[in-house]
Fold this protein.
Amino acid sequence: MIGLLAGIRTQVQKELAQANDVASIEAIRIKYLGRNGALNQRFRQGMAQLKVEDRKQFGQAFNDQKKLIEGDLAGKEDELHQAELADLAETEAIDITFPGPPLARGHVHVLTQVRRQIETVLESLGYQVELGPEVETEWYNFEALNITAGHPARENWDSFYFSPELLLRAHTSPVQIRAMQRIKEPPIYIITPGRCYRRDAPEATRLPYFSQVEGLAVDKGLTVGDMKGTLLYMIQSLYGRDRKVRVRPSYFPFTEPSFEFDVTCGICGGMGCKSCRHKGWLEVGGCGMVHPQVLRNGGIDPTQWNGYAWGFGIERMAMLKHDVDDIRLFYESDLRFLEQF
Ligand code: DAH
């Protein structure tokens, strides 16, 4: 009668050998060990046929078989679990002792590079870097620079207003006044780099935000020659000794006389080409001898002192240095562009 139970375990083992997930193991458990499973059916069958004195031994055999089969099921489950872990170890293991991939290092933005180069060159001539606020008063941005209310030249510096008295500065020139007020006693030799704002739509040559570097020298008996020599030295230090410079008469309310300042085109060397619109020269900004009224507004006596000043666009200078033909590229954060510098 015990033989009645014997074949079951072999059958279970055969089926387990085919099983490769938890669900199939569970199905086997129900099929053989469930309340109406094969083992219980045989048990009931056997008990019904056996005499009372033989039942105990049969019951014992039943329990033994059940334990063995349970062991087989648990063993298979364990095996699956181990295999799963081994799989994970192979495909997803993270070795925390392994050195990570090297971090890509960024570098200083091309406009910052150019600004620093300008600072370095002028510092070597004794100029100091002076900074001023980007939110300015109407007085510093216009009035103190001799651009009085209603003056038509104000249109050239149309900016963004917070109120009639407060605006985003349209140029770095207001820092000339702030520097004179702070330093008080000439000689004054400063440069002031920084961001400026104007109500211009973005295009290849202008943006509503850009940077300038302003220079101011106040001393005794300064001449246009001193100014031109200083700027020539700066340009040749930045772009090479083969560059030429020129000044052209112009008009600014804060200088007298006033000039536009040009540098020979680096692409054609002054011969004229597409990128300088066949002029051979590129304009980088304005300059001139500081107007006596501006010195007075800065608290300096124009009968004792005089000065020169200039204001150049940093983007323009960077375009000139690297032959970039669209100012917007500097602010688009496209790494393909930025990584070239
Ligand atoms: N502030 C002028 C501008 O933004 C540039 C300029 C011209 C600055 C002549 C100066 C200067 O200091 O002397 O267009």
